[in-house]
Write a structure and sequence with these properties.
Blueprint (H helix, E strand, L loop, with lengths): L4 H5 L4 H4 E3 L3 H4 L7 E7 L15 H12 L4 E4 L11 H8 L5 E3 L11 H8 L6 E5 L2 E5 L4 E4 L2 E4 L22 H12 L5 E5 L13 H14 L4 E6 L6 E5 L2 E5 L5 E3 L9 H6 L6 E3 L6 E6 L3 E5 L1 E2 L8 H4 L4 E2 L2 E2 L3 E2 L2 E5 L1 H4 L2
Parallel strand pairs: 2-3, 3-4, 6-9, 9-10, 10-12
Antiparallel strand pairs: 1-21, 2-15, 5-6, 7-8, 11-12, 13-14, 15-16, 16-21, 17-20, 18-19
Helix pairs in contact: 7-8
Length: 349
């Protein structure tokens, strides 16, 4: 568990109010009543002919882990596919799986489809939505908006004239004002503690959502009124593993299920593979699909069962001449684990 002391100190009394929880998954003990367990993954990037793992096997291994762990449901945090309409059989395999599945949308989900078509394929009413399960509210925030010269535009919106995304002044990963109001209401109206998922980060300072401070204020104001109202915030998008405690909230920057996108071409993989997958030479690939199994309990427990993986064909950052860390976050094929119990009632003192 990589948590800096300064992040504990920013939570005020938090360091004195939480302690390592008894590890049920290590001891084999059953989960306590009043808990929910789910599997989360992100950035699987199903894109045949472009990205590796262009069949269902990679996804099936994640879902099999969810079943083995007896998860209540599965949620993906964006960049699931690059064309949900063309890849609808893959999408429906996930939608119709034996345990419930949920979507949080990412920027690449809209690469080749209008956003309304993506919503239909993923069976969601809107990019932002929530559901209640096991005494918790799970809120998906849509960060896939741009703003430039007074114009708001959702990714995949072909109807509104707007500058090209690469034009000067175009700001991405935005949360429009009406969605911020919706988020505040979704938290305030919840009878349950909340978990928030998004694609872009509300925690990363260098390259997170430009609206991160406004969003964190909503979280912190809610917790000031009702300690423990917002307990866990999870994002994808950056293909890195990082966990941080900030203002009494656990923020999980969830690693990609499949790869780290480097962008610069490298020669680490065999030519026959890079000919088959044209973007393969722009990334570092994991040997196994990454996911997290997360258990939350009403009494303040947060447990994240991560994974320790390996680089495919041993192509590490050093081999690919890729930086070992981006914005201070290590490029690894891992998801770290975390197991703590928080005394939220004491935080109100």
């Amino acid at each position: 568990m990589k948590i800096e002391r300064r992040d504990f100190l920013r939570t005020g009394a938090l360091a004195a109010l939480c302690a390592p929880a008894a590890s049920a998954f290590a001891s084999g003990k059953p989960e306590k009543a009043g808990s929910v367990k789910f599997c989360a993954f992100s950035d699987i990037h199903y894109y045949p002919g472009r990205f590796p793992h262009d069949n269902r096997a990679w996804l099936e291994r994640i879902l099999a882990r969810a079943e083995r762990s007896r998860c209540d449901f599965v949620i993906q945090l964006g960049d699931f596919t690059h064309n949900p309409l063309k890849q609808i059989d893959y999408v429906n395999f996930y939608n119709d799986f034996r345990i419930p599945t949920h979507h949080t949308v990412g920027n690449h989900d809209f690469d080749q489809c209008p956003h309304e078509a993506v919503y239909d394929a993923y069976r969601i009413e809107n990019g932002y939505h929530f559901f209640d399960h096991g005494g918790f509210r799970f809120i998906s925030v849509d960060t896939n908006n741009s703003y430039c010269n007074g114009i708001w535009r959702h990714y995949g919106d072909k109807s509104k004239p707007a500058p090209n995304f690469n034009a000067g002044g175009h700001v991405l990963n935005r949360v429009p004002p009406e969605e911020l109001e919706w988020l505040k209401a979704a938290i305030e109206s919840s009878p349950h503690p909340c978990v928030v998922t998004s694609h872009a980060s509300f925690e990363r300072e260098e390259d997170g959502s430009p609206d991160r401070e406004a969003v964190r204020k909503i979280f912190n104001d809610a917790n000031a009124r009702t300690p423990g109202k917002v307990r866990l915030v999870i994002n994808g998008h950056y293909h890195c593993d990082h966990l941080r405690l900030l203002d009494g909230i656990v923020y999980l920057d969830l690693n990609s299920a499949s790869n780290f996108w480097y962008g610069t071409v490298h020669k680490g993989y065999p030519a026959e593979e890079t000919r088959r997958y044209v973007y393969m030479q722009n990334m570092l690939i994991w040997k196994d699909p990454l996911s997290a199994v997360i258990t939350l309990s009403q009494d303040g427990g947060i447990r994240i069962e991560g994974m320790k993986g390996a680089f495919y064909r041993d192509v590490t950052p050093a081999v690919a001449k890729c930086p070992a860390a981006i914005h201070g976050r290590q490029v690894t094929p891992n998801v770290q684990s975390f197991d703590m119990k928080f005394d939220y009632a004491a935080m109100s003192v």
